[in-house]
Amino acid sequence: METVAAVVVTYNRLDDLKKCIETLHQQTHKIDAFIVINNGSTDGTGEWLATQPGLHVINQPNLGGAGGFATGIDTGYKGGYTWLWCMDDDCLAAPDALEKLLASPNLGPCIKNSMSVSVKDHEELAFFVPRPNKEYRKVSDMTSVDLVYGVASFFNGTLIHSDVVKTIGIPDKNLFIWGDEVEYMTRAQKMGFPVVTVPSSVFYHPPSFDRDGIPWPAAWKQYYAVRNQRRVLQNQHGNTIGRMLFATWATKATIQQALAKRKNRFYNFLLFGEAALDSLTNNFRKRPDTILTLRLYKWRNKLA
Question: CB of 197 within 8 A of CB of 151?
Answer without folding.
Answer: yes
